[in-house]
From TrEMBL:
Domain RsbT co-antagonist protein RsbRD N-terminal, residue spans: 25-164
Protein name in UniProt: Transcriptional regulator
InterPro entries: CdaR-like_regulators (IPR051448), PucR_C-HTH_dom (IPR025736), PucR_C-HTH_sf (IPR042070), RsbRD_N_dom (IPR025751)
Lineage: Bacteria, Bacillati, Actinomycetota, Actinomycetes, Pseudonocardiales
Domain PucR C-terminal helix-turn-helix: 350-407
Species: Crossiella cryophila
Length: 413
């Protein structure tokens, strides 16, 4: 049992715990510098992680050590729990366990080095006591950190082989999923919103000196956490940092879904994008559990079509890309339809103007997007009409021109 009022440990003529408390912000910075200098894996973490999560863990660890110097009481269960959770996050990011443990030893060493120059001969016994307490501190902290890390790794392994993955596999194969759902302790929903996701790279994944694998894992962890936060009911997913498939439980049978449900999905995906710090494009199809396999294939095709035809990030349903989807199917008419714009070959400025004009819906809006005068748009549209025989300002030709643009993109993919 620690003393209720142990004598202060004095170094340099002042109580050590008071000195370290005053110096704590500077010590956190020094520890962070030493860790990133001596451990290459920490240098590859994103700056946001170092300034946020990692610095917070360093501060918590140093505070618990200062409390030990003041009270002689080892870290509390709550303090050790925080360090365990931090170690679990490092495990999810793929940092080796030896690297994680080394960081704690560096933190204690920085504090030890900061007091040695000021130690006086009459304070040698207090200095030795600090050394003893430092060893006791690491004796308690290292196992807690190791246990948190290994528990997370075990959980990650178990997740890959869990009953939910068995259920997901059954649904994606199109085999009866009721038994797998029962084994997972789940009830199949009225329908699933089947998502094919493409997640763009976070800026950290292309940043100089940042390990792209770790940055990608951090992004993926944020996406998964946001899914769990927003979705009521279990989400079945097979996701990587680049995307994958997710099955969101739907609130009603497919025939009873409304535009409010799809608007909700738009908000969910927008939230995922914010959490990821990267653009997310989704192909989405609603299906009863028995139709998930076919829906997943269609969702993947919708996603591919949306990306191929330059659709913006967000949710895309089949109805949103009907023309492009159909023109992506092989047919005898496809090449001829694309050939409607063959007279514009070699003049991408005219093709771009046509595409922007048809999308924007007017000469002034197109001029603003193209950063040209409206008269310039008029001139280019007249030139297009001269070359193709089709007038983009005429309602009878607009449909054919839109189809021709889509066919041109499909044949040039």
């Amino acid at each position: 049992m620690p003393d209720d009022n142990p004598p202060d440990l004095v170094v340099g003529g002042q109580p050590l715990h008071e000195r370290f408390t005053r110096q704590l912000p500077a010590l956190v910075g020094q520890v962070l510098i030493e860790i990133t200098r001596r451990v290459p894996a920490y240098r590859q973490l994103p700056a946001e992680a170092l300034a946020g999560d990692i610095s917070q863990v360093i501060e918590t660890a140093l505070r618990s050590f200062v409390d030990l110097l003041r009270t002689r009481a080892l870290p509390t269960r709550a303090e050790l729990g925080f360090l365990r959770e931090s170690a679990a996050r490092r495990a999810e990011e793929g940092l080796p366990i030896d690297v994680v443990l080394t960081a704690y030893h560096i933190g204690v060493q920085v504090m030890w080095d900061s007091l040695r120059p000021d130690a006086r001969p009459e304070e040698i016994q207090d200095v030795l006591t600090v050394n003893d307490l430092a060893l006791r501190y690491l004796e308690v902290v290292a196992p807690a950190v190791g246990a948190g890390y290994l528990d997370a790794r075990q959980t990650m392994f178990d997740d890959d082989h869990s009953a939910r993955h068995t259920l997901l596999s059954s649904l994606l194969r199109g085999t009866p999923a009721e038994i797998a759902a029962g084994q997972a302790g789940l009830r199949l929903p009225p329908c699933y919103l089947v998502l094919a996701l493409s997640v763009a790279a976070h800026p950290d994944e292309t940043g100089d000196g940042v390990d792209p694998v770790i940055a990608g894992r951090r992004k993926l962890r944020r996406v998964r956490a946001e899914l769990d936060r927003q979705i009521r009911g279990p989400v079945l997913s097979t996701l990587t940092a680049e995307g994958g498939t997710a099955l969101l439980p739907g609130p009603a049978p497919v025939a009873e879904l409304t535009e409010r449900d799809w608007a909700w999905l738009d908000r969910v995906v927008a939230g995922l994008s914010r959490a990821a710090g990267a653009e997310i494009t989704v192909g989405a199809v609603a299906a009863e559990p028995a139709g998930v396999a076919e829906a997943a294939a269609v969702a993947g095709e919708v996603l591919a079509v949306a990306q191929r035809f330059g659709r913006p990030p967000g949710v895309h349903r089949l109805r949103d890309v009907l023309l492009e989807y159909q023109l992506s199917r092989p047919s005898a008419a496809l090449d001829q339809l694309a050939g409607v714009l063959e007279p514009l070959s070699g003049n991408e400025e005219l093709v771009q103007t046509l595409a922007v004009y048809l999308r924007a819906g007017g000469r002034r809006a197109a001029a603003a997007e193209l950063h040209v005068h409206p008269n310039t748009v008029d001139y280019r549209l007249r030139r297009i009409a001269e070359l193709t025989g089709l007038d983009a300002t005429s309602t009878k030709d607009i449909g054919l021109l839109k189809a021709a643009l889509a066919a041109r993109s499909a044949t040039r993919r």
